[in-house]
Write a structure and sequence with these properties.
Elements lengths: L2 H9 L7 H24 L24 E5 L4 E9 L5 E6 L7 E6 L5 E5 L2 E6 L2 E6 L4 E6 L3
Length: about 150
């Protein structure tokens, strides 16, 4: 992109050689900036560090009773911490979804909320509410007991 085109975009001169595609990208970028700015200014500090991962005590390592997902399908899925950070956030865990051993899941950094992902399964959540996903087409709403 030449310097002339960049200045034309910044100045709002839409008679540049890039045409409608660039105008659409510019409009989408502006809309995204407004939405993000409004979200940050409207409720600053709403998502704290405690909302970025599930919390467990260091004594919960190897125990499956502290974090249990109770889901709309009537089943319960315990999350057994394997590693807990100094701050008490569950970093890796075993999610028990059936009769066999659990599926290993790992904390994936998110902007707001948490995600624990493993082979064929992942959990997206915010505080005590979560969505348990079994592949792309199976999703179950859950709450965390004793959260």
């Amino acid at each position: 992109m030449t310097l002339l085109v960049i200045f034309a975009l910044l100045a709002g001169d839409f008679k540049n050689p890039l045409g409608a595609t660039m105008r659409n990208l510019r409009a989408k970028g502006l809309a995204a900036a407004i939405v993000m700015g409004g979200g940050l200014a409207g409720n600053p500090g709403a998502a704290t560090a405690a909302d970025m991962a599930l919390r467990a005590s260091p004594s919960a390592i190897g125990s499956c009773s502290e974090l249990v997902f109770s889901c709309e399908n009537g089943r319960q899925y315990p999350l057994c911490p394997i590693a807990v950070s100094i701050a008490g956030e569950v970093v890796t865990a075993s999610l028990h979804t059936g009769h066999s051993g659990g599926v290993r899941v790992r904390l994936v950094p998110m902007g707001v909320g948490y995600r624990y992902a493993g082979p064929g399964v992942w959990v997206d959540g915010f505080r005590g509410n979560a969505l348990l996903n079994f592949g792309k087409h199976s999703q179950i709403a859950c709450t965390i007991e004793n959260y």
